[in-house]
Amino acid sequence: MTADWSHLARARSLLFVPGDRPDRFAKAAGSGADGIVLDIEDAVAPPSKATARENIGRWLANGGAGVVRINDPSTQWYDDDVAMLAARPCAVMLAKVTAPGQVWELLGRLAPGSCVLPLIETAAAALEARAICSVTGAVRAVFGNADLGRELGVDHADLAAMAAARSLVVLASAAAQLPPPIDGVTTALTDEKKVTIDSEHAAGLGFGGKLCLHPRQVPVVNAAFSPSAEDVRWAQDVLAAAGDGSVAALDGYVVGKPIVDRARRVLAQEARAAASHIDN
């Protein structure tokens, strides 16, 4: 069975929903997010993990969609999480990855056609990011600022403190020819300004989307990772100035192949944003 995970490549927003709250699954799917993440890991307390696993398995078996974040291989819940998902092709977000072998091992236990979104949220993972992103079956990297900040002893919301690690994930994704990675969470649920600042910062570093913790964050994130009208006009003007592809000038700036390529990427990003929807 062949599964199409192309929607994950263009997703701007992935909204978490706790696996022990099945009443929220459909609401999350209708939130306007480009995808949802059904969580069995940090959002679910240990006594509720078995229930969360059952809820998610039922949702998927009945045709529901979503990425499933599972517990990491060092935990007592990992094997049960994987067993629940093995019946059908699925998209799995693997928490606390430290090495590419963990991604290989997981893919070997999932149904053919499955994919993994490695969650880069440890120092070891950040330093091994290119190898992790290069595993066949890894479709997009995700940056985990909260756990990495805890490990490093810095504030996960401090943009300067986390900038180097974020850039490592962006570079690794590009080197592995993956789509731009998904940025981590903004834990200030009701602070729209903070979500905007965080999203624009991540987009400026080369991220292509962001994890969301609440539906109210979704429209802010979608806007930040979609080209603005000004960006689209600039791209159109660049292509018009470039004409046959020779070096030209636009508003006093040189327009060469790298600039033209970037303009084409902006217009492609606009088209992907228009096509993004929740049927994942």
Automatic annotation (TrEMBL):
Is-annotated flag, keyword Membrane? no
Give binding positions for Mg(2+).
E121, D147
InterPro entries per record = Aldolase/citrate-lyase_domain, Citrate_lyase_beta/mcl1/mcl2, Pyrv/PenolPyrv_kinase-like_dom, Pyrv_kinase-like_dom_sf
Q: What does the record list as GO biological process? A: oxaloacetate metabolic process
State a single Gene Ontology molecular function. Answer: magnesium ion binding
Please give the cofactor(s) recorded in the UniProt entry for this protein.
Answer: Mg(2+)
- In this chain, substrate is annotated as bound at R69, E121
Q: Which domain of life is it from?
A: Bacteria
For this UniProt record, the keywords arranged alphabetically read as follows: Lyase, Magnesium, Metal-binding
Which parts of the sequence belong to the HpcH/HpaI aldolase/citrate lyase domain? Answer: 12-215
Question: Into which EC class is this enzyme placed?
Answer: lyase
| EC number(s) on file | 4.1.3.34
Spell out the protein name for this chain: Citrate lyase subunit beta/citryl-CoA lyase
Q: Which organism is it from?
A: Jiangella mangrovi
